[in-house]
Amino acid sequence: MLSANDFASASWELVVRVDHPDEEEQRDVTLRVSGDLHIGGVMLKLVEQINIAQDWSDFALWWEQKCCWLLKTHWTLDKCGVQADAKLVFTPQHKMLRLRLPNVKTVRLRVSFSAVVFKAVSDICKALNIRRPEELSLLKPSSDYFKKKKKKDKNNKEPLIEDVLNLESSPTTSGPPVSPGLYSKTMTPTYDPVNGTPVSSTMTWFSDSPLTEQNCNILAFSQPPRSPEALAEMYQSRSLVDKTKLNAGWLDSSRSLMEQGIQEDEQLLLRFKYYTFFDLNPKYDAVRINQLYEQARWAIVLEEIDCTEEEMLIFAALQYHISKLSSSAEIQDFTSESEVDEVEAALSNLEVTLEGGKADNALEDITDIPKLADNLKLFRPKKLILKAFKQYWFVFKDTSITYFKHKELEEGEPVEKLNLRGCEVVPDVNVAGRKFGIKLLIPVADGMNEVYLRCDHENQYAQWMAACILASKGKTMADSSYQPEVLNILSFLRMKNRNSASSLASSPENMDMNPECFVSPRCAKKHKSKQLAARIMEAHQNVAQMSLVEAKLRFIQAWQSLPEFGLTYYLVRFKGSKKDDILGVSYNRLIRIDAATGVPITTWRFANMKQWNVNWEIRQVAIEFDQNVSIAFTCLSADCKVVHEYIGGYIFLSTRSKGQNETLDEDLFHKLTGGQE
């Protein structure tokens, strides 16, 4: 039997700092503990000694030196490695955080600082009514991100609090299940599927949500356009190397906010990180679609993604249309005249889901792979040779293009066969100049083969372009996405088709427009205001009949059709190379790009990837592909974990299917993205 003296010698003093939110100063509490006392017992002793009657269930122990939470309450102090010199803090797991949303609104809500970021983002998205939270993450901005804004606020003497939407009662806490808010697929549409506005009759079903009707409107509606002066302050001319800095600050999804040094009430950016937007549905996704539109809009206006002047005017026309509809009285009136019976709507929705849409020609699609055959012009760039296109007879079958000198020689030996699987497809179009070109960058052993095709008219271009896009992903024209892709390309071309006969420059509606609000500052400098307004109104004619949600979806589709869409850039040094290169990470491939010229050097597809890992000692990412191709690189513009997580995250998202319920396999995500650090 141990005597009291023996017990005393086996025990020791542990000092714990109590971070009590109601007290201005933190206070230290000294406990006498032994190594075999479990963490739960330490917290029990602590609460007894503090002797304040309150709910302590959200409090946990944070170990400052080790920068980790002690959440396994059944573990003993010995097992955790806690000794007398440990600096422990007894602090709430949920703290306030300010999040800058894609629409540049800041929301302030209570977030778990102890859960991994993947789980914290999931809870945040539930509170904000954004489905598919796996597509978003938190980005820590560079130190100068908010400086210009603060300067502007100071000059205007506007209090910053006006910009903050306070959701302090947000239900992102543990314990009871998270309130669904407006986030529910079991109900009939919580949003009007035509204009994307909340349907007022459903608001009462979710009265426990922090998203009141007013707050929901702030997140689901487009904000008024910024002034040209504000845009000029935010705008920075960016080279490709500058763009690599934009994505350096993504937080590690496998670690908590506290472990990554995030402070209470710090400001982070909530952004769509992965550019694969699954199951966008206007019935449930008003907030998601609007935030996605806003992220796309800012990327265009601040030139974070490149587009032609012609495309910039289409984006401007859509922005103007969306801005006009968002501020009009009809949209703000939530009483819908033609309310559909809710049960009937739910049943018809279920019927479509069960039947999986129309499948009349399913067998025909499987057995009969279509082909395209037509006269096109071809050009292969060579040094010191002018661009001269030559006509050939082209045949597109499966995922390959073969071409012949004449149609009559189709049964014979082709001039060349181009395998498009894994290639880069870039539009080379000027509708006003009747130029419909397709640029193909085809991967070969020592880099990329560059080939230009030229079509005669819109329909031919849409068919061949859609076939090339699908072939690059390893799909044929028998795939169900081929016809929608053709229609999507045609609709985008029609938006570009300006009506030169229009005389809108002097219309009263045009005179009220401030055109510099809708284009990048660099584009605005090239044109006089009246000239720019006339060109935007010209493009607006092609979108004027669209509903609000249709215009937002069309904007997102047009953004997705840009050559640079979905590419996230990092500055890297490849093993064996003497110079830095840029690595472009996309949803289905990696691209090595020359940092000086911006020209793609080679492409590797995830579909051909056998394995990837990280050597944490030298911070090097190594990837093995089919046919004994292997690459290795170190990351210079960000931590290698960020790039590793991007690759694993895209592979994880590719496993989603509509047949699944909306619960995610979080363990699989961490297995694919966490690495074996």
From TrEMBL:
Residues spanning the signal sequence:
none
Q: Does the keyword Thylakoid apply?
A: no
Please report the stretch or stretches of sequence annotated as the PH domain. 377-473
Provide the residue span(s) of the region labelled Disordered: 148-186
Q: Which InterPro entries match?
A: Band_41_domain (IPR019749), FERM_2 (IPR035963), FERM_central (IPR019748), Kindlin/fermitin (IPR037843), Kindlin_2_N (IPR040790), PH-like_dom_sf (IPR011993), PH_domain (IPR001849), PH_Kindlin/fermitin (IPR037837)
Recite the UniProt keywords alphabetically. Answer: Cell adhesion, Cell junction, Cell projection
Q: Name one GO molecular function term.
A: integrin binding
List residues traversing the bilayer: none
- Provide one Gene Ontology cellular component: focal adhesion
Compartments it resides in: Cell junction; Cell projection
GO:BP terms for this protein?
cell-matrix adhesion; integrin-mediated signaling pathway
Top-rank taxon of the source lineage equals Eukaryota
State the similarity comment: Belongs to the kindlin family.
**Name of the featured protein:** Fermitin family member 1
